[in-house]
Amino acid sequence: MRLVSLLPSATEIIVKLGLEKNLVGVSHECDYPETVKSLPRLTSTRVNPSLDSSAIHESVLEVMKNAVSVYDLDVELLKSLKPDFIVTQDLCDVCAVSFSQVEEACRELVGAKIISLRPKMLGDIWNDVLNTAETLGVKQKGYEFLEEVDQQTQVVRERLVGFEKKKPKVLTIEWIDPIYVGGMWLPEMIDIAGGQVCIAESGQPAPVVDRETLTKINPDVVIVKPCGYKLDQTLKEMELLKKQIPDWQSGTRVYLVDGNSYFNRPGPRILDSLEILAHCTHPDLFPEFGMQYAEGLITLEPGLKLP
Q1: Residue 41's beta-bridge partner residues?
Q2: CATH architecture type of domain 167-299
Q3: Nearest to 235 by CA among 307, 290, 180
Q4: Domain segments of the chain: what residues?
Q5: What CA–CA distance (Å, rounded) separates 81 from 127?
Q6: Which residues in the chain show pLDDT less than 70?
Q7: Which of 66, 261, 264, 271 can pair with 227 through a Cys bridge, CB separation 3.0 to 4.6 Å?
Q8: SS3 of 117, please?
Q9: pTM as predicted
Q10: Which fold has domain 3-143?
Q11: Residues 6 or more apart from 136 whose CB is under 8 A from it?
């Protein structure tokens, strides 16, 4: 069985299901685990990722006006790999190659089938893993993952017993300029982690907000995790971040998180993201998660100063 993945979360799902050996090609953004980086890259982007968040946003809007997709698909390479299954998504044209491109390419591939992921809620993510497992003939691996989901979620819920009335207001920032607030599965995660959701709604796209709106919220916890940004990229935009978000009360805790690895990839590491979220929301209750994910997490000092 020959598998191609056209987005990072799909690659992580395939690896979690024990099928990494079957992967023959991935997207240019697939970087976890490290071993997949040596596989043929089937996609490329029309947007310069080294630009700042404002320029990237404008560039994406411009490309979307004039092209089918932000990404290009190497159809000739795809043909040469002769995949049996292509795992992609039909949710966000800014996240991966457009579904129409993949469908068109598949017309020239004999026997290739598409597995399309479309997660909006946490349950959708878990179902995507299970459905992919069933389609690829490793159903038991899918059920084993669901057991992990239940176990790790239960650990968080049980430790929060008795603290139901102490729910900090949690704001997650998915993009810096303009400011997008994390939607889709994020509100559910905040609820599980014992926090109050700010602005966003479960299952809905990330809303765009202005500084005035953010000032009125006055959150207790702010998690900045720009989609696709590693920590070093976010650190380069600290001055911009300071201009974009208000100087909240001194009690507001602000964290920077590796948005490339966590929260924004609807795959197995959403469980890791839940643990990071639990630590940020209730650091005294979940101190071990702060240490466990220290490489992808920075706690800012008051005034958005680096420690």
Answers
A1: 26
A2: 3-Layer(aba) Sandwich (3.40)
A3: 307
A4: 3-143, 167-299
A5: 28
A6: 64, 67-68, 92-96
A7: 264
A8: strand
A9: 0.94
A10: Rossmann fold (3.40.50)
A11: 1, 3, 14, 17, 19, 85, 115
